[in-house]
Automatic annotation (TrEMBL):
It is a multi-pass membrane protein. SUPFAM superfamilies: ABC transporter transmembrane region, P-loop containing nucleoside triphosphate hydrolases. It holds the Pfam family ABC_membrane. GO terms for molecular function: ABC-type oligopeptide transporter activity; ATP binding; ATP hydrolysis activity. Residues 337-575 form the ABC transporter domain. InterPro entries: AAA+_ATPase, ABC1_TM_dom, ABC1_TM_sf, ABC_transporter-like_ATP-bd, ABC_transporter-like_CS, P-loop_NTPase, Type_1_exporter. One of its GO terms (cellular component) is plasma membrane. This is ABC transporter, ATP-binding protein. Residues 17-305 form the ABC transmembrane type-1 domain.
Length: 585
């Protein structure tokens, strides 16, 4: 939890210092009240006291109470500012860190957990700081000050207060021992619930089409029940604290008056009044001590959760990113890609996904990757933008190892179209001109040109607002093929040296596929293209086709060469092409 304090900025520390000042003022005013009360008790019991004297004392009490209220409001205001500011800083830090994560770290934490850590966990810290700043600071100041005030009054009363505080501390400790592990589980179970809900909502069409609502509901119910029951146990344990506190509080008042009754009875007539007055004052101070611990109790309700959240946030913030920037490369942008004896294994996997991959794509060439599903095509191209680092060998872009590049420099050389087309909420234009490319922003003309190359002009110009037509989150208001074409337009608009298409033509009809490839070849003749494809038709004119099987290259060459030399390619081709097409190469 203390690690989180390093995220306070100077201004927030100033607010904390100001809060402490106002808390001291508040405690001083609170503890002045019993003094005036003692004065009033004495005045009431003294013969000949004037009413005006009592009213004056009462007026002072009122002023103290009002002053305390104002100080408390000011502290609340500062605490809210500090808490909200810290929450904002933490959200920014976690978000920035997550953005820097490589796929390895994202896979390790899971998307649902990262979202939860950025939102729910940060809120837990915010709540603790908002409440804690008032209570954590006030409680010890109040407790110590009140103890100083009552010390020396009567050892019997002091002993009763010590016993009450001891019982209170034991009750707090027992509660924490039971509740803390449960609060730890609650955060993990919340992640799980988020994961199940997310999965269900993103796959809602499949769920409906397969009448799997019942199955999903059961999955959700299991996650929900587990979270609810853990929550219930933890909260029941915490709920015990409030009556325990009230019991101790009432018990102490009773003890103070009981002891007081004996002391008054045993005292001489002249001392009786003094002891009675002391008793009233002492019981007030003793209440303040208990109040301080009750405040701490409030913190202990929030602290365990916040502690777990702080640990989860720090886990993200302290994670060493496996992929870090290289020193930077000044290599001329020409568009060559070379794999030199590359092997790769996913973290935790038992075997290599790619083994000894070597090939070269020269500037302007089109390299196609084909192979059965799971043969490693996506994995291979993901090594070029350095989504993962190789285990062995080297991936070179423009003659330099990708690990030597600053990631931004590397990504500026690449236009990447992922297997699953991704669009962001915004407009057609904002999606096509997305991101930074290192050589100025994408102009309107370039957007139109890229949309035309991606064979999207027709449907974009039919949309209401054309290039400014809204695109919903994840592109749910355009079709799968339209989404793919806009993703291609986005890559083309970057005008990179290297274009990577990961099975990006799969949702296109044959006519559009052909037209798009023709337009791409004409307008991006100088650009090196790496195309993952399932259809032979998409890649048969590539300069080099690489055939992958179980993560190894089993064939390399042109369509005609592979038809003669590579059995795997022949099998793929014979399943897709007619006899004449096969015979004609
Ligand atoms: N993030 C990951 N973590 C662990 N293993 C993975 C991960 N992604 C892919 N794999 C595994 O690596 C292998 C190669 O997957 P990859 O996605 O590269 O295949 P592919 O040839 O692109 O398949 P497809 O044509 O179906 O897209 C598969 O066995 C897959 O299970």
């Amino acid at each position: 939890m203390t690690k989180i304090f390093r995220y306070f900025n100077r201004k927030q520390w100033l607010y904390v210092a100001a809060s402490i000042l106002f808390i001291v003022i508040q405690v001083w005013l609170d503890l002045k009240l019993p003094d005036y009360m003692s004065g009033i008790t004495t005045l009431v019991q003294t013969e000949g006291s004037a009413m005006s004297d009592i009213l004056i004392q009462g007026g002072y009490m009122l002023m103290c109470a009002l002053g305390s209220m104002v100080a408390s409001i000011i502290v609340g205001f500062f605490a809210a500012r500090v808490a909200a500011g810290l929450a904002q800083t933490l959200r920014n830090c976690v978000y920035d860190k997550t953005m820097d994560f490589s796929m390895e770290e994202i896979d390790r934490f899971s998307t649902a957990s990262l979202i939860n850590r950025t939102t729910n966990d940060v809120t837990q810290i915010q709540n603790l700081v908002a409440m804690g700043l008032q209570a954590i600071m006030k409680a010890p100041i109040l407790a110590v000050w009140a103890v100083v005030k009552i010390a020396g009054k009567s050892w019997q009363w002091t002993a009763a207060t010590v016993v009450a505080v001891f019982v209170l501390v034991v009750a707090l400790a027992v509660t924490l021992i039971f509740a803390l592990p449960r609060f730890q589980r609650i955060q993990g179970l919340t992640d799980n619930l988020n994961r199940v809900t997310r999965e269900q909502l993103t796959g809602i069409r499949v769920v409906r089409a397969y009448n799997a609502e019942g199955y999903q509901e059961k999955k959700f119910a299991v996650a929900n029940d587990e979270l609810t029951s853990t929550n219930l146990v933890a909260n029941r344990v915490m709920a015990m604290m409030s009556p325990t506190m009230t019991l101790i509080n009432s018990g102490l008042t009773l003890a103070v008056y009981w002891i007081g009754a004996y002391l008054i009875e045993a005292a001489s007539l002249t001392d009786k009044l003094g002891i009675f007055s002391d008793m009233v004052v002492f019981s007030n101070y003793a209440m303040q001590v208990i109040l301080a611990f009750m405040m701490l109790n409030m913190i202990f309700v929030l602290l365990p959760r916040a502690q777990v959240s702080a640990r989860r946030i720090c886990e993200v913030l302290d994670t060493e990113n496996h992929i870090y920037d290289g020193a930077g490369v000044k290599a001329e942008k020409c568009g060559t890609v070379e794999f030199r004896h590359v092997s790769f294994r996913y973290p935790g996997a038992a075997a290599d996904t790619l083994t000894d991959i070597s090939f070269t794509a020269r500037a302007g060439e089109t390299i196609a990757l084909i192979g059965a599903t799971g043969s490693g095509k996506t994995t291979l191209i993901n090594l070029i933008p350095r989504f993962y680092d190789v285990a062995e060998g080297q991936v070179l872009v423009d003659g330099a190892d990708v690990q030597e590049y600053k990631q931004e420099e590397l990504h500026n050389r690449i236009g990447y179209v992922s297997q699953k087309a991704v669009l962001f909420s915004g407009t057609v234009a904002s999606n096509v001109a997305y991101g930074e490319r290192g050589h100025g922003t994408v102009s309107d003309g370039e957007i139109k040109e890229a949309v035309a190359i991606a064979q999207s002009t027709d449907f974009v110009e039919k949309m209401e607002g054309t290039y400014d037509a809204p695109i919903a989150q994840s592109g749910t208001n355009v079709s799968g093929g339209q989404k793919q074409r806009l993703s291609i337009a986005r890559a083309v608009a970057r005008k990179p040296e290297i274009l990577i298409f990961d099975d990006s033509f799969s949702a296109l009809d044959y006519k559009t596929d052909r037209a798009l490839r023709k337009a791409l070849n004409e307008s991006t003749a100088q650009t090196t293209k790496l195309i993952v494809a399932q259809r032979i038709g998409t890649i048969r004119h590539a300069d080099q086709i690489i055939v992958l099987e179980h993560g190894r290259i089993v064939g390399k060459g042109t369509h005609e060469e592979l038809l003669k030399t590579c059995v795997t390619y022949q099998e793929i081709a014979s399943s897709q092409l007619s006899k004449e097409e096969l015979n004609n190469g």
